């Protein structure tokens, strides 16, 4: 009996990352990797994992396709890490089924909107040193944020000093639109570029006209000198 029990335990135990604990919760596979001093996401997470806890580690980046093989994943906890960079395709493969994604209490300043807007999961983004900009505003408008944590999404840096330290939702409620600011900046840059090209064309035309006028004057002077030259010859 002990031998058969060992055989039954080996497949699940062998597929579990050595730094994690794997168990069943209400008939679903849970992988618990909390507080294990991990610096990156384990590569050998079981494919049938439904709950994955990677909180309280030292993970700094979520690379592309980090969870692509976890098609059954519903809850993902990445809170209390040192995450600074999230790739655009970080959650590819789990976007449809994921119900909860916790990215709170990290070092995230900005995030590609493509990484989150495809998700149907409820997001927790609180307690990060956010740089308030258009991309973050679009995430706030279109993503499914956890209502209990929205007020804790604070502007650590911003285009204007008066927004720093304030909840992003409060800034937006006051009528600020970071996307329109970026659009105005783009419009000004385009205007300056077009004005520069126009000025170059004008300068070229003026130089061209002056050059032709000088050539014409020289030619006219030459023609005027021809009769007198013939008179001297006679």
TrEMBL record:
InterPro entries: Leu-rich_rpt, Leu-rich_rpt_typical-subtyp, LRR_dom_sf, LRR_TM_domain-containing, LRRNT. SMART domains: LRR_TYP, LRRNT. Residues 1-22 form the signal peptide. GO terms for cellular component: plasma membrane. Keywords: Leucine-rich repeat, Membrane, Repeat, Signal, Transmembrane, Transmembrane helix. Coiled coil: none annotated. It is found in: Membrane. It comes from the Eukaryota. The chain crosses the membrane at residues 188-209. Residues 15-51 form the LRRNT domain. Gene3D superfamilies: Ribonuclease Inhibitor (3.80.10.10). It is a single-pass membrane protein. Its main location: membrane. Pfam families: LRR_1, LRR_8, LRRNT. Belongs to the LRRC3 family. This is Leucine-rich repeat-containing protein 3.
């Amino acid at each position: 009996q002990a031998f058969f029990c060992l055989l039954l335990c080996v497949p699940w135990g062998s597929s579990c990352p050595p730094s994690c604990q794997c168990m069943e919760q209400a008939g679903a596979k849970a992988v618990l990797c909390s507080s294990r001093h991990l610096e990156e996401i384990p590569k050998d997470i079981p494919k049938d994992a439904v709950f994955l806890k990677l909180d309280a580690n030292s993970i700094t980046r979520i690379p592309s396709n980090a969870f692509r093989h976890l098609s059954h994943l519903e809850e993902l906890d990445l809170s209390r890490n040192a995450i600074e960079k999230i790739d655009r395709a970080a959650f590819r493969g789990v976007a449809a089924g994921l119900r909860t994604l916790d990215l709170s209490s990290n070092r995230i300043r900005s995030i590609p909107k493509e990484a989150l807007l495809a998700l149907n999961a409820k997001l927790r983004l609180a307690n990060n040193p956010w740089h308030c900009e258009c991309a973050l505003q679009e995430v706030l408008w279109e993503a499914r944020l956890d209502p209990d944590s929205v007020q804790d999404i604070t502007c650590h840096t911003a285009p204007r000093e008066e927004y720093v330290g304030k909840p992003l939702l409060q800034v937006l409620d006051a009528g600020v639109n970071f996307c329109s600011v970026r659009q105005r900046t783009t419009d000004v840059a385009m205007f300056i570029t077009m004005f520069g090209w126009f000025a170059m064309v004008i300068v070229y035309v003026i130089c061209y006209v002056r050059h032709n006028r000088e050539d014409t004057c020289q030619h006219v002077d030459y023609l005027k000198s021809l009769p007198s030259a013939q008179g001297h010859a006679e």
